[in-house]
Write a structure and sequence with these properties.
heterodimer; A: alpha/beta; Rossmann fold; Alpha-Beta Plaits; six-stranded mixed sheet; four-stranded antiparallel sheet; 14 strands; 29% strand; B: alpha+beta; five-stranded antiparallel sheet; 27 helices; 56% helix; 13% strand; globular
């Protein structure tokens, strides 16, 4: 388990990460979202021991990360613009990684390279941006580490490749309990993979929740009320937002699905239906509650 | 994987990425050392098939030995390689992508550092060793085994490698302290040039405003030592110089190794504490920015102040220069630090502070706030003194022969030159302190006047006033020695002071080494007059007596005598070691040792002249029919109304001059009474003569007596017009020195 307590980093006068407390449980996918400059990369670079924090702590299973080889051998960091040696081929990169990651799975590397249709002996600097991302992801998963830190890794991958990578992550999570920590500025990228999401804004963490918890506790209802009654009349509901299109009302309501259904039925609407919320909509609602306009922060 | 395996794997991976550096190292050393050695050794073998003189053979041997010895090209290549290896090894620290990559992998930073650092030493060390060894083998093939016999090749290898590592480590430190390649290269330049630069600046500051500062051998040595220790590059150059004079300095090498180890440790620590986020920034450590800026800006500001003051010698220009230097340097540093031109005034308070301090330093210099030039000891505090009266008696030979070992381990006899000033400081014990104080007081007063008028100690030489540079060594009662130099106008008062000092026995004992020479040191005596050198027939007691008589008369020589007499000949009391040196170099034209250590014999040295004659020496007179002809070259650059028609014709002909030969007895009689024999005239600057200004005179002597070295000997002379009538001057077309308006 990765834990940060009061994690702070300043670059001169700029406070990049501001007293962040976060817990990343093993075996789940942690999504770190935020706008450009929110501090995601800085946070990740501190997690993987590249940067030394000014204040606070970063620990993996209670052990400090910075300059701790034992702990660092448990994760692989894929930066948003991964570095490959000049004129190196994927094969040469594998050779290097094998010297520093003892559990590097050479066989799997060859297999994945073949599956992704990437030439192991071609210079990486001749690859496209997406192909480079694929090479870095393959190196990352083959390193056999417990954690995989991905900074904007899906940015540049086509939808098919994105799904493929996600399925590899899922497979590794199931097989060896790998924990991917994925930073992205795009909520939609993380929607179908993350178990836990942390929202960073201006260096601080605005929100950190289990996605399922959020999904279970917030619902969207489309309904047509009886003439003379309004959705606001359903005072038993914790209505967060009401939108109207003619007689069709869309409510965002906090609470369990059963409770909401019971209350709505008691008002005998002409029509009512509970529809699923996207991660984006959940975030909009949740951050609005804490006083932020998520559209300005993320989208 | 064991940590040792990991370390070697890291080294291997590091080398894979730096193949180009290995190739550059090999190519540069092969083409600067191996290939030239192969070419030259081949050429030497070809030459050997033909007849080579001993001299040519020696020259070839020296050339070939030099290839694997102190080879300038190899040294230059090693210096460049030190920078290249440092840059290629730690360039990744300046790129955030690469820093993320290297610092996220599970390897300790110290290990990463060591892998790169050691590679930079090992590769160059191995390649250089191989190239050097192969070059030595090529030389051995020619039959020259000096480099192996004397261990020259491995000694220079060791020396070059030790300094390579030192320079390499310095460059690595520059890479650690910066986050940008250009700034790192500037840093390397600063590390290698800052110390010597500041020392030069301090010397410049002293020269500009410490007018009475007097350099001595000890102070010069101190400066040289400071330059030597001020930068790795300077230290390397000094080490090479030392090596060329003798064997490998073990102490120096040990010291260099210790310093290099300390620098290596510093580089290691810097690597470990270096923030990864500093990649791409100018400076890796923010705390170093201000001290580095001030350490550079302040000397530059003072240098600007000195430069502008030297142009106009006025306070406003000095202050302008200091402020200009501060502003320009601080702004430049801020631009570099921020990589943003708009940040040039980012730290204006520091800029103002730097400007203020530099202006204060300039003001302190201009107004002598240090009180250095106005310092004058109390007479009672001075135990004794030594005085250097300008460039007087610069014909005296100081120093003596000595044995030195060159870098090939061969012993060489060389003449260790000495300085007049140093000899006087060491040997002169003037006890007439009040006269010395008068001289010093006059010097201080003159200095104040010069300073008030914004003049330098070297200014105004062209004015009518005759000036004299003097230096005084005050030996204080507490044992301290204080040195000062003064520039003093030669007025009557100064003439009296100079005469009083000159005439004292202590002054002469502290100026002429002959006065402390013992009879037991004296091997033989030679008397030289004009074109003739005679060995005097004196042995044992007679030699002792002659030496004693000469010493006595030289001691008693007064300025009044020197004002009216010129030497009639010169005498040499050749010491035993002087004779040995002459014998050593008898077949070489490297040194003219026989002509050294001659002393003047004045006409008033009657007892000496009598002893010379008694010992078989001949004392002639130029006016007594010795001269066969006189050749006078009239130079054409004096054009004017006084020119004779003949001279005017010469002037218009475009030739440098024309030679006139005077052979008639009447002409020679007239000229010979005015002839000043140049060598003897040069030995007495107190003699008052009015020399013709437009001529060069050469006399030709008649073949004489036992001296048959050559049928005709010629010697340079001058014409003293004060000994001629106006008619005679006009007849020969002599001209007085042009007077300045």
């Amino acid at each position: 388990m990765i834990e940060t307590r009061g994690l702070t980093k300043r670059f001169g006068d700029i406070l990049a990460v501001d007293h962040v407390d976060a817990t990343i449980k093993d075996g789940s996918v942690f999504g770190l979202i935020g706008t450009n400059g929110a501090g995601k990369s800085t946070f990740l670079r501190m997690l993987c021991g590249v940067l030394k924090q000014d204040e606070g702590s970063v620990t993996i299973d209670g052990k400090d990360v910075y300059e701790n080889v034992e702990v660092k051998s448990r994760f692989f960091y894929i930066s948003d613009d991964q570095y490959f040696f000049s004129n190196a081929t994927p094969e040469e990169m594998m050779t290097f990684y094998r010297t520093v990651y003892p559990r590097f799975d050479k066989k799997r590397f060859h297999h994945l390279m073949k599956s992704f249709d990437l030439d192991e002996r071609r210079k990486i600097n001749t690859f496209s941006k997406g192909m480079k991302k694929q090479v870095s992801v393959i190196c990352g998963v083959c390193a056999g580490t417990d954690y995989l830190f991905c900074d904007e890794t899906f940015d540049g991958l086509d939808p098919v490749m994105r799904q493929t990578v996600k399925s590899i992550f899922v497979g590794d999570m199931e097989e060896r309990n790998m924990t991917p920590i994925i930073a992205s500025h795009n909520l939609r990228e993380l929607e179908d993979i993350c178990d836990h999401v942390g929202l960073l804004h201006k260096g601080g963490i605005l929100l950190s929740r289990e996605l399922e918890d959020m999904k279970l506790n917030i619902h969207k209802i489309q309904c047509v009320m009886l003439p003379g009654s309004e959705p606001e009349d359903m005072t038993e509901l914790d209505i967060m937002k009401v939108e109207r299109r003619g007689s069709l009302c869309t409510l965002t309501v906090r609470g369990s699905r059963e409770d909401i259904e019971t209350v709505v039925e008691s008002y005998h609407p002409v029509f009512s239906e509970i529809i699923p919320l996207s991660l984006e909509e959940i975030f909009i609602s949740e951050t609005e509650v804490v006083g932020y306009d998520i559209k300005k922060l993320v989208f | 994987m064991t940590s040792r395996n990991l370390y070697f794997n890291l080294m291997k991976e590091d080398l894979k990425r730096r193949v180009w550096t290995i190739a550059l190292t090999a190519l540069s050393l092969v083409f600067t050392l191996l290939v030239p050695t192969a070419i030259r050794s081949g050429a030497y073998l070809d030459q050997l098939r033909e007849a080579l003189s001993d001299y040519e053979k020696r020259s070839w041997i020296r050339q070939l030995e030099g290839m694997v010895g102190i080879n300038g090209l190899v040294i230059a290549v090693l210096v460049i390689l030190a920078v290249v290896w440092a840059v290629s090894g730690f360039r990744y620290l300046h790129n955030s992508r690469q820093v993320d990559f290297y610092h996220s992998i599970p390897v300790r930073r110290g290990r990463l550092f060591l892998a790169s650092y050691v590679n930079g030493i090992l590769v160059t060390g191995i390649v250089y060793f191989v190239v050097q060894a192969v070059s030595v083998m090529l030389i051995l093939r020619t039959g020259i085994d000096g480099p192996v016999q004397q261990g020259l090749w491995w000694k220079i290898y060791l020396l070059n490698m030790v300094y390579y590592v030192m320079l390499y480590t310095t460059a690595v430190i520059a890479m650690m302290m910066t986050g940008n390649l250009i700034v790192a290269l500037l840093g390397i330049v600063v590390f290698c040039g800052y110390g010597p630069g500041v020392i030069v600046l301090i010397k410049g500051y002293e020269m500009m405003w410490f007018h009475t500062l007097c350099d001595t051998a000890r102070s010069s040595m101190r400066w040289i030592r400071m330059v030597n220790l001020s930068s790795p590059f300077a230290n390397y150059m000094f080490a090479l110089e030392d090596f060329s004079y003798g064997a490998l300095g073990v102490r120096r090498m040990a010291g260099t190794v210790v310093v290099t180890a300390a620098l290596g440790l510093l580089a290691y620590v810097l690597y470990r504490i270096r923030p990864s986020e500093s990649a791409g920034k100018a400076m890796a450590f923010k705390k170093t920015q201000t001290p580095i800026k001030l350490l550079i800006a302040l000397p530059v500001a003072v240098a600007f102040g000195i430069f502008f003051y030297s142009l106009r010698s006025t306070l406003p220009w000095g202050v302008f220069g200091a402020l200009c230097g501060s502003v320009i340097t601080c702004c430049l540093m801020e631009i570099i630090y921020h990589f943003d031109f708009r940040k040039l005034f980012a730290n204006w308070i520091q800029m103002a502070a730097c400007g203020a301090v530099s202006v204060l330093l300039i003001l302190a210099g201009i107004y002598d706030w240090y009180g250095y030039d106005s310092w004058l000891p109390k007479a009672t505090e001075v135990k004794s003194a030594a005085v250097w009266l300008g460039y007087e008696d610069n014909w005296v030979t100081y120093g003596k022969p000595g044995i030195e070992t060159n870098y090939r381990g061969e012993e060489e006899l060389v003449w260790n030159y000495g300085s007049q000033k140093e000899y006087q400081y060491e040997h002169m014990e003037l006890t007439d302190i009040y006269t010395v104080m008068e001289l010093a007081g006059k010097g201080v007063r003159t200095g104040k006047e010069l300073r008030r008028d914004g003049l330098q100690i070297w200014d105004s030489w062209g004015h009518d006033t005759q000036w004299r540079m003097c230096a005084v060594c005050f030996r204080m009662n507490n044992g301290r020695q204080v040195f000062r130099q003064y520039r003093i106008p030669m007025d009557d008062e100064m003439t009296d002071i100079t005469a009083a000092i000159h005439d004292s026995r202590e002054y002469k004992c502290g100026t002429y080494p002959i006065l402390t020479q013992s009879p037991s040191d004296t091997a033989s005596v030679y008397f030289q007059q004009y074109d003739r050198v005679e060995k005097l027939n004196v042995d044992g007691e007679d030699r002792e007596k002659l030496l004693a008589v000469y010493q006595k008369e030289l001691e008693e020589l007064t300025m009044a005598v020197r004002e009216r007499e010129l030497p009639v000949g010169v005498i040499q009391f050749r010491t035993v070691e002087h004779q040995e040196a002459i014998d050593f170099y008898r077949d070489s034209n490297r040194y003219d040792l026989e002509g050294r250590c001659y002393y003047p014999v004045y006409p008033s040295f009657t007892r000496t002249l009598e002893a010379i004659r008694g010992a078989g020496g001949t004392v002639d007179d130029l006016t007594k029919g010795m001269i066969s002809e006189v050749r006078i070259r009239y130079y054409t650059w004096y054009e004017g109304e006084d020119m004779t028609e003949e001279q005017a014709a010469i002037a218009s002909s475009g030739y440098e001059g024309i030679d006139m030969l005077y052979e008639k007895k009447e002409e020679i009689d007239i000229l010979s009474k005015a002839l000043l024999y140049a060598d003897y005239y040069g030995m007495n600057e107190y003699y008052k003569a009015e020399c013709a200004d437009n001529v060069g005179v050469t006399v030709f002597f008649k073949p004489r007596g036992t001296f048959d070295k050559a049928a005709v000997q010629s010697r340079r002379c001058q014409i003293d017009m004060s000994r001629l009538t106006e008619e005679e001057i006009e007849r020969f077309g002599f001209m007085r020195e042009a007077q300045e308006n």
